[in-house]
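Lecture 7 notes: from sequence to structure.
We start with the chain below.
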Amino acid sequence: MPEKVGAVPGRCLVLAETQILQESIQIPGSSLHLMYQSSQAPGYLSTVLMRLTHSTVPTTLTHVHVRVEIEGSVHTRAYEADPHLTHTFAWNKRNVYKQKVYGVAQAKISVGYQYSSCPSILWETQTAVLQGFDVDISDVGGWSLDIHHHYNFHEGDG
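Predicted structure tokens for the same chain:
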């Protein structure tokens, strides 16, 4: 989760593993900072990089199947078996009904290996946690305050 990886007020960070840029600017005369994370920008996708095969592939391995289940959606892909095969799953942070998912979501990732010598596909399954949308009522142009509490700027009695 990007905000848990390196949110450091007053510093600019590039989080290489998640490909996120974070910028923090102090507000003069206060202890507050304006924070920007590229992961909150429109179009940012949460990703998982999977290494499917190593440098050598058994001659009987014919295909590798990938199945990702997240928030009711199922994504599948099949590849011919090759050395150094990888797959990147990019999640749009939406559920099966195209609604935004806030917080984190757990993905069930299954990788199946199809061999010419075996009638069934052999599956390995793991889970991964992916970041959904963040709820941030102080978001202004992609920038937010680095405080844990949100202020209610609306006038009235509530």
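Points to note: The first strand starts at residue 13 and ends at 15. The CA atoms of residues 49 and 88 lie 4 Å apart.
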